[in-house]
Structures are given as C-alpha cells and as structure tokens.
Amino acid sequence: MAKLVDSKETIAVLQKTNFQFKKQFGQNFLIDSSVLEHILSFSEINKDDLIIEIGPGIGTLTEALCERAGFVVAIEIDDKLIPILEENLSAKDNFKLIHGDALKVDYLSLLEEHKEFSSVKVVANLPYYITTPILMDLLEKKLPLKSITVMVQKEVALRMKAAPGTKDYGALSLAVQYYSEPSIVQEVPPHCFIPRPNVSSSVIHLRLHKKAPVSVQDPALLFKTIKFSFMQRRKTLVNALASGFHLDKKQLQDLLSSLSYPENVRGETLSLADFSLISDGIREILS
Ligand code: SAM
After folding, report:
1. Does the structure show a pLDDT above 80 at 4?
2. CA–CA separation, 156 vs 133, rounded Å?
3. Whole-angstrom distance, CA of residue 123 vs CA of residue 60
4. Which end of the chain has fewer CB atoms < 10 Å from its terminal CB, N or C?
C-alpha cells in the first residue's frame, strides 16, 4: 500500500532531508489518500501500461503508480528531490527517474525506449505554472497516448471542459477538445496539499481521440483561426480574423454569410465544427 501520501510520512521525509519548498516549481505535495485513489481509479492503470509522471515530488503518486503499472517514468526538475526519490523508490524495479524539465523531454524517444508497452498514459499532479504548455506539448506532439489524468488548477479544468457560449470557453477548450474528451473527476480543496495552494484544484481526465472529432483540411490553420478569434475578445469575429490574417473584411463577411453566420458573430459562440468550416473557407481565400 502507498505510504507516502500520509501527511505525517510526508513531513517526516521533508524534515529528514531538510527540504525547502520552491515556489517557482509549483511544489504542492498531495497528502490526501482518497484523492490519490480517485486519480488511480480514473486512470485505470494496469500492468500493460507505461505511465509517464510529470513532477513526482517526493514520490507520493509514483509509489502508488509503480504498484499498479507495468513501468513508470517520472520527470522531476528539482535537484534536491532526486536523492529523495531515489531513496523512496529504491525498492521498485519498474521505475525510471529522469532529472530534467518536462517541457524539454524527447517523448518520442522515451516511448521508443519502452516500446514493449502498447498502452501509454500520463498521470500527474502538475506544477500549475506550466500546466497549459505541458498539456499542449503532449497533445500537439500527437504521441500515442491513451489518456492524461492530471491535477490542475480548478479554473484551468473548467476552461478545458467548457462548452460554446459559456464564460470559460475559449482557445484552450477548443484545443483540448480537438485532441481529447475531457471529464472533471473531482474538485480538490487546498487542505489536501502541503503547502496549501491559494487556489482550488481539480483532477481532470482526458481520453484521447483516436480520430479527430472534426475533419478539417489544415489543422494548423484551424488553430491559427481559433487563436486569432479569441485574441481580441471584444472584437467581432470578422474584425479579429481580418486583423489576424491581414485579410480584407469584405472577403471574411462574404465567407461568414455564405456559411450562414450572422455578420456580428463572436468566436465565443462557435463550436469546433464551426471553426473547422471557417478555417477551410479561409484556406480557400488564402490560396
Ligand atoms: N507529484 C507530487 C505530489 O503529488 O505530491 C508533486 C506535485 S507538485 C504539484 C509539482 C512537481 O513538479 C514538483 O515536484 C516540482 O518540483 C515539479 N516540477 C516543476 N516544474 C517542473 C518541470 N518543468 N519539469 C519537471 N518537473 C517539474
């Protein structure tokens, strides 16, 4: 059974090693066993899985992951945590630690090294200061991942899951939903961590699509269209796209009316399918 999640055990490890938390690394260690169980059960880990964990801390989640998964690769940036992790996980023979920045890891080579595992999942309590870049990096690389189950700031989870026309909806919702189906597993209050973060957290589970949910001719142009549409929220879609793509407003007005959108339509109300149609239309204009 996982022991490190116990708050007394965590404090004992931290005191023994004289560990000082580093705010710049987003260090909030999990000390609640029911949250740990939720993360494990939603990620549906079994011995056929290779698990990638980003930011193992002192190894709380890692220890439990090693008990269930075929193999666990954990990536930790903080030098001071490396000897602690090596000691806490010394009994595990299905574990590899990478000392480095998760944003700089070559994930394709990492998967190649462990190609005997056909099922790859990411499970982590992410450092909040780089949640979006880490998730977008993993999704955009189109790695053969089955799922991503992560603790993130509650607001970020709401934005990932948001539907058109709601206040949290934006470029992040569309990007995440292009690659995956998000579900919010659990809201997690600050007292489940040491030290306590200033914000609430949520565990979110992203089940990666095998096939994109929309067919679009140029996915890179789709993301550019989405980015320009949400960059200046106060502008109408026509104005935002005209300035983003340096296009004539009239051409865009004609495109939107040919697709039956009102002249003053705003990006906040449009679905992924709507953006795909608009992006294909912009592709025609640009060609
Ligand atoms: N998994 C542990 C737990 O649940 O108790 C720790 C989670 S803590 C929120 C985030 C962890 O990510 C810390 O251990 C921190 O040092 C590490 N970290 C921060 N930035 C990182 C980066 N760029 N690459 C890898 N690890 C990072």
Report:
1. yes
2. 12
3. 12
4. C
Look up residue 229 and give its amino acid.
Answer: S
- Beta-bridged to residue 207, according to DSSP, are 147, 181
Per-residue CA distances from 195 to 14, 94, 129 (Å): 12, 29, 16
Q: Which amino acid is at 254?
A: D
Helix, strand, coil percentages, rounded to 5, for the chain: 45, 20, 35
* The total number of residues written for the chain in this structure: 287
Annotated binding-site residue numbers: 28, 30, 55, 76, 101, 125
Cα gap 182→150, rounded to integer Å: 11
Task: Quote the ipTM score.
Answer: 0.99
Specify binding-site residues for S-adenosyl-L-methionine.
28, 30, 55, 76, 101, 125
Measure the CA–CA gap between 68 and 41, rounded to whole angstroms.
10
Structure tokens at 191: 């007292």
CB within 6 Å of ligand 1 — which residues? 25-30, 54-57, 60-61, 75-78, 81, 101-103, 125, 127, 130
By percentage, how much of the chain surpasses pLDDT 70?
99
d(CA 8, CA 44): 28
pLDDT tens column, 17-26: 999 999 999 9
Tens-digit pLDDT profile for residues 38-75: 999 999 999 999 999 999 999 999 999 999 999 999 99
Pocket probe for ligand 1: among 43, 54, 131, the residue whose CB has the most ligand atoms within 8 Å is 54
